Amino acid sequence: MAETAIVVLDRSPHQSEYLVQSFKEHEIPVIYNAVLDPILDLPDEYRRRLYLVDYHTLTLEKRESVIKLFKGLKNEDRVIVYNVTPDANKRIVFYELGAFRVFDRTVNIEEVCANALWWYEQITTHPDISDVLMEGRLENIEFIHFLWGLARRKVSGILELTMKRNHGEIYFKNGQIIHAQVLTHQGLDGLLHMALWQNGTFSLKRHNTKDIEQTIHNTLLGLIILISDLKLKLFSIQDQFKSEMSVLQLVNAGDLPLYKINLDAGFVEYLSQPREYGDVLENPFYPNHQTMMILQQLKKTGLLRVNEPIETIIEKEAPAFEHIYESVNTLNEFRFDPETLKQIKTTLALNTEAPAKVVVICDDEELLKHYLASLAGGADRVIFEYNMHFIRFSLGEGYEIILIGMMANPQLLRLLSVMSEEINGFIFLINAQNLANVGYYSYLINQSLVQHPVPAACAVTFFNERQMLEKIKNHFFLNWNVAWTQFEANDADSMVQILSSISPVEPIEGKEKEEEGEEE
Asked: Would you list the DSSP string of 96-164?
């Protein structure tokens, strides 16, 4: 019996051809079909299979057939579902059915393929990887639903959680949580600490937990109620500190006894130095939920200095971005035909002495991150500073572009106002499936161009069958003649082609005076 094969279920000719050809180039056995039924009755010629399943293809199949696929999985089989709509509940359903990984549609087909190739390499070089029952990203799951799913499957093992600043473990026995540990926080405190993490990775591994000392005796239902109540209680506190990059510092520590605040001496010393809010939450003295309540009390009494990221920048004469640009290595190279390159050079005032700086603005955080990571060649190659994302790439012949990613939120105009650097252009990314805040986004586009009237383009993606570019354009209320284009979010070449759509902008006659009157 052969060892491993990859099975592709996808009705999209473009996606399926890309996957099948990629696996064949790596000499990996691959089985392809556009419909599910033939895949359900494959002969047992392989010891293990990795199923790559397109979500849209599954929606066209019978419910019974989909359930049969997951129920028929052998111990070493794995399923990756991709192109799922950005709905946490839908992803949870697939995890509960037994999926190994679930990717929403912001993950392009190249990344899905790379993930499958990584798995194939791992399973062929480290066969014991089968000890990993499930892994993924915390932001793609609803933690409470996830715990219910593990309870229903009566899982015994270790759930490892890793985020940017910390790492912890939760121990399960027959689906019940018996122990948790992160830093010095154990038992219930450790569990509640990790339950508040929103970003990071998780990995569920087989492990014999019968000899683990039980430090958590609550029922799963009781724990879920505790977690839900805690999140509600802390929501307003989290909102007070705005960003993980807000800088906190304890001041006038000698006044603590006056307010009857009794704190660990180590924590007092720790907080007496300026620290980012995200770092403070992961301190070794108190779990994060207790830390939030302490910080709220200190803020109310005036003993906590809080500088939001943008306020910290404005306190300086001008933000020095030069060191950021220097640290952004040239990552990828994209080639244009000579005529298009000449047009881009003219529009963005490109020269070989310094990179052109193009600001990319979006009101959909996932789309913004995905766009920049795709052009950079991976999320780990995107630099994040001052609430902005930076990537750098080459157009060949010595010409370079720096993209500066910003969210379309209340901080945007303040960020743009303190940028002393010359901005060469704007790209406004638009998710056609997320048009709930077009009024506010239109306002931010207009005001961005008032501050910096440079060439720009509005670029739209994720159309459905009934949408057209002109209809999307009509949703926006712009005071400027801005070029509009569309792109494929799963194609890096399509993404970079937006540069060729950037064009000079002009205020629409009549609207500029109206806007000035409204401001007065």
From this structure: HHT-SEEEETTS-HHHHHHHHHHHHHHHHH-GGGGGEEEEEEGGGS-HHHHHHHHHHTT--EEEEEEET
Select from 483, 476, 478 the least CA-distant residue to 497. 483
**Is 31 within 8 Å of 126 (Cβ atoms)?**
no
Q: Give the strand order in the sheet containing 157-163.
A: 132-137, 201-206, 157-163, 166-173, 176-182, 185-186
Q: How far apart are CA 328 and CA 381, in angstroms?
A: 8
| Residue bearing tokens 């997951």 | 70
> DSSP letter at 325?
H
Cα separation of 408 and 225, whole Å?
35
For the chain, domains (ranges, CATH) are: 1-125 (3.40.50.2300), 129-240 (no CATH), 242-307 (no CATH), 317-519 (3.40.50.300)
In this predicted structure, the answer to whether residue 324 has a pLDDT above a threshold of 60 is no
**Which pLDDT tens digit goes with each residue over 11-28?**
998 899 999 999 999 989
Q: 388 with 369: CB under 8 angstroms?
A: no
Q: DSSP H helical segments within 154-276, as ranges?
A: 187-195, 220-240, 265-271
- 168, two tokens: 């912890």
Length of the chain: 520
Q: Please give the DSSP secondary-structure letter assigned to residue 460.
A: E
The label of the residue with tokens 């500029």 reads 512
Our measurement of the distance from residue 363's CA atom to the centroid of its chain's CA atoms, rounded to an integer in Å, reads 13
- At 347, the amino acid letter reads T
326-356 confidence digits (pLDDT tens): 655 556 788 889 999 999 999 999 988 888 9
pLDDT, one tens digit per residue, over 373-410 is: 899 888 878 887 767 888 888 888 888 899 999 999 87
The Cα 501–Cα 347 span in angstroms is 10
- At position 487, the amino acid (one-letter code) is F
Q: What is the SS3 string spanning 258-314?
A: HHCCCCCHHHHHHHCCCEEHHHHHCCCCCCHHHHHHHHHHHHHCCCEEEECHHHHHH
Residue spans of alpha helices (H) in 358-491? 365-376, 412-417, 438-451, 469-474
* Whole-structure pTM value: 0.44
Whether residue 478 is predicted with pLDDT greater than 60 in this model: the reply is: yes
The three-state (H, E, C) secondary structure of 414-430, written as one string: HHHHCCCCCCCEEEEEE
**How many CB atoms are closer than 10 A to CB 476?**
18
Q: Return all residues near 131 (Cβ < 8 A) that are at least 6 apart.
A: 205, 206
pLDDT at position 89 is 59
Q: How confident is the model at residue 2 (pLDDT cuts 50, 70, 90)?
A: low
Q: Is the dihedral of CA 318, 323, 326, 331 positive or negative?
A: negative
b/e per residue 355-382 (b: at least 16 CB within 10 A): bbbbbbbbbbebbbbbbbbbbbeeeebb
